């Protein structure tokens, strides 16, 4: 309990710092006026868009799990929904451990296998979002838009980090035995038991990379990833239309790229602060300051709230599934450590 409290305090401090930076750039005093004037008839197409992307996001995970052990979509969807809610709700992205914990089904799928599939997801998500953000920044500069230094730096840094991570991921799969041996050697400095456990976890994580040599599965995963992020961008574009913000679908892709990078940074629950700061930075590439000051804050808060609301509702509904129990979710959230003895309740 003390550990969770410490993480929560740290996350709130990070989130507060982001929110402080955002408050210096966003006219929040105009937010409520813009929200009241928005066309909320756009909420229906937004929900439909989010529904489709939600299915794509869960289905693509199945493509990563299939080379290890096939899992029915009827089981993947509720576990994914609860896992997505946990990522939003828990501090410092601790919710990332919930899906691997709940999907574990020894001996077929270990929690470390699940962690490996999470690593593949995050690396490819990061590459896709970084490319979208970097392209948006370069396109804005080509039009003579003054791009804030922190926006350019964030785009370049993210692109570099995730490209390196992709290379490391592929090299680790290629040199699987050497990677596991190296992990064992490093931890054996402290104790043999710890080294054996670390090597076992590392081996399981590398097993989670097994989709990479499978061209068909990898293609399906990449296609679903592109569809998932495009639909997220389309959902933001729909909300923007409700606020009469004149941005293109391409600009919405750049927006989701910047926001996606921002919320990958471990911070407070609900991505409060990250979302606002990076959304404002992205909108500044496409909209004049006068429009941002008048309508930007309302749009950003509405987009953030509707997104969080979607994952809250779908996550709570998923708790009704026989594949997920509340006690298991609490256990996964409070003790997020790889455990190969974990098994999902029937």
> Helical segment tally?
14
Major pleated sheet: none
**End-to-end Cα distance:** 28 Å
Helical/strand content category: mainly alpha
Counted beta strands = 0
Low-confidence runs:
none
Percent strand: under 5%
Order of helical and strand elements: HHHHHHHHHHHHHH
Task: Identify the overall geometry.
Answer: globular
Radius of gyration, CA atoms, in whole angstroms: 21 Å
- Rounded mean pLDDT is 91
How many domains make up the 3D coordinates?
1
Helix content: over 70%
Give the arrangement of secondary structure elements.
Layout: H1 2-23, H2 31-37, H3 43-65, H4 73-89, H5 98-103, H6 111-142, H7 149-174, H8 176-187, H9 192-207, H10 215-242, H11 249-264, H12 274-283, H13 289-318, H14 326-334
Description:
The structure is a single chain. The chain is built from 14 helices and no strands. The protein has helices at residues 2-23, 31-37, 43-65, 73-89, 98-103, 111-142, 149-174, 176-187, 192-207, 215-242, 249-264, 274-283, 289-318, 326-334. Helix 4 crosses helix 13 and helix 6 runs antiparallel to helix 7. The longest helix has 32 residues, at 111-142. The model has no long low-confidence stretch (mean pLDDT 91).
Essential attributes:
346 residues, mainly alpha, 73% helix
């Amino acid at each position: 309990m003390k550990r969770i409290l410490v993480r929560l305090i740290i996350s709130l401090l990070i989130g507060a710092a982001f929110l402080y930076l955002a408050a210096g750039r966003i006219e929040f005093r105009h937010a409520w006026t813009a929200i009241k004037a928005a066309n909320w008839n756009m909420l229906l197409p937004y929900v439909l868009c989010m529904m489709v992307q939600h299915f794509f996001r869960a289905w693509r995970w199945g493509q990563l799990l299939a080379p290890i052990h096939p899992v029915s979509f009827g089981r993947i969807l509720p576990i994914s929904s609860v896992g997505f809610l946990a990522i939003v709700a828990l501090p410092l992205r601790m919710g990332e451990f919930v899906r691997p914990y709940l999907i574990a089904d020894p001996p077929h799928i270990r929690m470390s296998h699940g962690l490996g599939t999470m690593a593949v997801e995050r690396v490819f998500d990061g590459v896709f979002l970084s490319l979208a953000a970097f392209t948006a920044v370069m396109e804005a500069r080509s039009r003579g838009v003054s791009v804030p230094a922190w926006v350019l730096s964030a785009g370049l840094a993210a692109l570099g980090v995730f490209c390196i991570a992709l290379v490391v991921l592929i090299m680790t799969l290629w040199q699987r035995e050497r990677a596991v041996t190296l992990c064992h050697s490093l931890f054996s400095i402290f104790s043999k038991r710890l080294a054996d456990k670390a090597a076992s976890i590392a081996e399981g994580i590398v097993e989670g990379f097994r989709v990479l040599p499978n061209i068909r599965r990898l293609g399906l995963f990449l296609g679903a990833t592109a569809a998932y992020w495009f639909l997220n961008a389309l959902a933001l574009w729909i909300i923007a239309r409700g606020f009469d913000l004149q941005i293109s679908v391409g600009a919405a892709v750049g927006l989701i790229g910047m926001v996606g990078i921002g919320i990958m940074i471990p911070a407070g629950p609900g991505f409060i602060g990250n979302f606002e700061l990076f959304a404002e930075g992205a909108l500044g590439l496409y909209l004049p300051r006068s429009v941002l000051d008048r309508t930007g804050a309302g749009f950003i808060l509405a987009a953030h709230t509707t997104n969080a609301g979607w994952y809250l509702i779908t996550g709570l509904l998923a708790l009704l599934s026989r594949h997920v129990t509340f006690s298991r979710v609490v256990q996964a959230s409070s003790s997020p450590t790889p455990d190969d003895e974990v098994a999902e309740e029937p």
